[in-house]
Amino acid sequence: MNIGILGAATVGEALAVEFIRAGHEVLISNRRGPGSLSLLIHRLGPKAKAVTLEQAAGCPLVILAIPWVGVKEALPKLPKWEGRILIDATNTFLNYVDFAVDQLGEDSGSEIVARLAPDAKVVKTFNTLPISGFFNAVPEGHTRVAFLAGDDVQAKASVAALIKSIGLTPMDVGALGSGGRLMQLGGVFSGAELLKVNDR
Ligand SMILES: NC(=O)c1ccc[n+]([C@@H]2O[C@H](COP(=O)([O-])OP(=O)(O)OC[C@H]3O[C@@H](n4cnc5c(N)ncnc54)[C@H](OP(=O)(O)O)[C@@H]3O)[C@@H](O)[C@H]2O)c1
């Protein structure tokens, strides 16, 4: 499967490595453009291609891995979503100096993402741990859980299959509004690390 990645920093690269290992092709992008990604592409190898944000967003499944403060600027510039899946991996930090968190009131991060990407099937996942934490070794007979939340059953099934393909156990925690709130900063699943005993 072709997977588009918006953002080519810690999360974009870590997920690209795992997707490629699982046999997928990745189209990865950043704000500065494909010319700035040659070293990253060299590290990722032939199954990775540097593209524009617009090209990455054209894939059937797209990862949003940019800072929260860039989301409102980036999403409106992208092509119409027309039902493609947008995986929201963001956390709502306003900066990485004192890690202040955006005060959203009654709103939630993923619902804001969904409004900024009309017609995208938004699924939240990969945000609840530092990204390397998803891929640390686990005791034999266990797999690490990746929570996911979203409103579209088929989109969640596709994302669950992607999660499984990279060796994690998907755990559906509900709709984008309710489950997304549990997963975002301050929610009970934010920072929660869960191991599943295999075959149970
Ligand atoms: N780091 C983690 O372990 C972790 C774990 C879970 C979730 N998250 C969340 O995942 C997201 C990505 O985190 P990160 O640590 O990988 O890196 P980051 O520093 O939040 O993002 C950097 C990437 O985003 C691009 N970018 C910045 N502003 C942009 C804009 N306005 N439009 C398009 N692209 C833009 C940058 O492109 P240029 O380099 O060209 O500027 C760069 O590729 C964040 O929302 C973060 O909260 C991070």
Record keyword descriptors for this entry.
30% helix, 21% strand, Rossmann fold, binds NADP nicotinamide-adenine-dinucleotide phosphate, alpha/beta
Explain the overall architecture.
The protein is α/β, with parallel strands linked by helices and 200 residues long. The chain has one domain: NAD(P)-binding Rossmann-like Domain (Rossmann fold). It has seven helices and nine strands, in the order E-H-E-H-E-H-E-H-E-H-E-E-H-E-H-E. Strands 1, 2, 3, 4, 5, 6, 7, 8 and 9 form a nine-stranded mixed beta sheet that branches. Bound molecules: NADP nicotinamide-adenine-dinucleotide phosphate (NAP). NADP nicotinamide-adenine-dinucleotide phosphate is lined by residues 7-12, 30-32, 53, 65-68, 70, 73-74, 89-91, 93, 127, 130-131.
Quick take:
With 200 residues, the chain is of the alpha/beta class. Helix content is 30%, strand content 21%.
CATH architecture: 3-Layer(aba) Sandwich
Proportion of residues in helical segments: 25-40%
The total of helices stands at 7
**How many individual domains?**
1
Present as ligands are: NADP nicotinamide-adenine-dinucleotide phosphate
Main β-sheet, in a few words?
Answer: 9 strands, mixed
Low-confidence stretches: none
Q: What sort of overall outline do the alpha carbons produce when their principal axes are compared?
A: globular
Return Rg in Å.
16 Å
- Average pLDDT number: 98
Name the CATH class: Alpha Beta
> Strand tally, please?
9
CATH topology (fold) name: Rossmann fold
Note the gap between the termini: 29 Å
Give the structural class: alpha/beta
Helix-strand pattern: EHEHEHEHEHEEHEHE
Our estimate of the beta-strand percent is: 15-25%
> Please, what is the CATH homologous superfamily?
NAD(P)-binding Rossmann-like Domain
